[in-house]
Protein: Peptidase A1 domain-containing protein
Amino acid sequence: MALFLALLLLALSGSSSPVAARASDHGGDDYMIVAMSSLKLKSACLGHRVTPPVNSTWMPLDLMDGPCSSPSSSSAVVPSVDELLRRDQLRADEVQKRLSHNVGDDEANGPANSKVTQVNHLAKIKVELGSRKPAKTTASQLGIHPAATVGGGVGTGTLLPGVIQTVVLDTASDVPWVQCVPCPIPPCHPQTDTFYDPTNSGSYAAFTCSSAACQQLGPYANGCSNNQCQYKVTYPDGSSTSGTYSSDLLTLNPTTSVNNFQFGCSHADQGSFDSQTAGVMALGGGPESLISQTASTFGRTFSYCLPPTASYVGFFVLGAPGVVASSSKYVVTPLLRDNRSPATFYRVLLRAVTVAGRRIAVPPAAASAGAVLDSRTVITRLPPAAYAAVRAAFRDSMRAYRPAAPKGSLDTCYDFRGVRSVKLPRVALVFDGGVVELDPSGILFDDCLAFAANRDDRMPVILGNVQQQTIEVLYDVDGGAVGFRRNAC
Structure:
């Protein structure tokens, strides 16, 4: 409880100044003046730029490897930009595989022997899992006469708080999980949080192999061990987790908890997961996700806002005060339905991208497949033809600045040394239902244009988390809509 309150106070103590100074009189409505310092990581956590929404399920969210992470994670090894982009390409490739209608089941589930790692530009939250059994206290320690006790001990009648676990938000997976004792390293990964030990929780239970929860695991079922249900999840980038499918009390904040929360109690994982995280909070459309488990209470609605840099704090909200389509604060676009694709993914129709007022259409084959909203893919992937046109328009708008060498999948980079502010073309995403202008932090990534190309024009667009920065993305799954609210964090 104290940790949650401390995070809330930290979030509210931040600066409310905008990331970029925008002025239409400095180059017209198609451009904005951006201070380069606003896109750089600061040494201290600056909290929220914008007052967070009023909602009982609100939680602070921060990005990996920044000053807003816990102090114990400050010693973590931060990957280079080239390494981060390499990891991101692996994830994007595997998302495309799972979306393909022509691959076999084994291939769609990801390469079994891939040597892969997790991308570090990720959003994470802190949750509390389990409920510790109260320690037995002797009567003499409490100043009570022994005759007043039964069995030599005094109980409080309630369970104590569980353990804090840092989890990555993932809109492209279904099974939540954390590492559980026993968890030898390897095959488990080191973590800064205390390892969750189910034997210390008074509300923990492992599902039996004949339970309904186990029978409904589908592609995530992994057999039975000592009559305990086993699961395995292989992620789009080829990494995996396996262990016992279980339930326990999940506390999101001081006013919101989920009884009998179903999750994977992981005893092994493949791939180099970051030590700053204990697991993954799955937000996908499958029945195992947090969103589906809490549907009766929160109506399969959630939102998040990723901050512009890791120096700020964003937010995650479960549920919403009303249907997204009824609010004028959001640009609303329909969720696409396709029974041929996994229910995990959330897809919308992206019609075009505008750069400094120039409209670049998304090829019909790619547009009809839908654009996948992924909280863990970093860089947005466009069809090659659309990307080439976006790149050409952006380069034309940035002729005043020195080009720099490409960085991984990013081939339009600039040398901004000595440049205090840049005249940046406005970039917007044109959805079926409205236009969403990107924040400067969603246009430039490490001084490069933050878009990349898919391998062919038929592959679906992937909308990465960089483009989502400072925008509240509200998923109204039952209502069949997604809302975008700019300048939300």
